[in-house]
Amino acid sequence: MDINNPSYGMEEDAPNDAGGDKEKMISIVRASGNEQLSVAEKTLLWERIAADITQPPVKIWWQSWWKMAAAITLLLSAGLGWWQWQRTQEPLPALVAFANDQSYTRGDTTVTRMILGNQQLLNIRNSHAAIAYQAKGTQVRIDSQEIKQELEAGRQVFNTLLVPYGNVASLQLEDGTRVWLNAGSRLVYPAGFGQQRREVFLEGEAYFEVATDAHRPFSVYANDMKVAVLGTAFNISAYREDASSQVVLASGSVQLEAFRGPGKKSTPVQLSPGNRALFTGHNGNMTVDNVDVTGFISWKDGLMVAEHTSLYEILKKLSRYYNQPITTDTRSGNETFSGNLDLQKTLNDVLDIIAATTSLKYEKQGNTIIFKTK
User: Fold this and answer.
1) Through-space distance between the first and last CA atoms of the chain, rounded to whole angstroms
2) Residue 203 — pLDDT band, cuts 50, 70, 90?
3) Which domains does the chain have, with CATH numbers?
4) pLDDT: is 82 or 71 the higher one?
């Protein structure tokens, strides 16, 4: 129904009780569960409908009522649909909600930062920080320094580890699980896990060796996907700027599923050792293939292993690892590289190896290194 069209009306002898009908219809719409419209908006909508009802009569009054009924039905349906949608949405885990509420900037520092649950900020100047939790999460060792963290019984406290570009870090959680965080990554985790589950939130890339605990499954939330395990080793790459996230399983078994977004209703995918799952968050697509796991996990040991890997992918990883913008010109983007790159060496040493084994050269333009055809 076009509520702005004055050609619709009622017969002259039809009852004109707009005031009573108005209150009835507002009550019906309010009860429909459509909380997208405020009471004031619903009142205004009815007043526009009522204005049409009181227009000069025309002979086809039944068409007006039919269209008005259709409009009301559509409004009620929208309200019911919104109410049903709200009921089907599972609440975010407290950990994920906490991580989503955090505000931070990755590029404003060159030091690794730890934010404790009481908002205490610790700067870690070692570019290869080693962190370990002990005593049920109340004691933290950062390299050679020990820090105590007060925890209240029954209250979960979330800590955050921020690893900037140019740095890496290793972390042992209170349950014995070991995590290696690559450059440009964020991990949010409880200082001490509860009795029923173990959950962490990842943005960036990390390699996990999960301590076995059959009574407390371990889950990683990253880019709208959830990876659930009991005890296994796997790598997750889930950078915000990448088109897709990937999980590579080294040992054990994991189950991968969407926990929100378009892929939420799809069947969970079970991975076996050597499987790689590619997950595209914006459409929920998930594909699985077989890969050489070594090339995806060697970074935690300071080594990049490439086998006919596109230069674009290699330079993207090196750019993060060394915190240095690196790119290629249009013609060089299709080049591939095979070999081992020692990430303990300087960036220039690594780039020299790439240039020597390809048909490319590199030069610095401003703050950016560009690979070009020789």
Assistant:
1) 68
2) very high
3) 18-88 (no CATH), 94-294 (2.60.120.1440), 302-373 (3.55.50.30)
4) 71
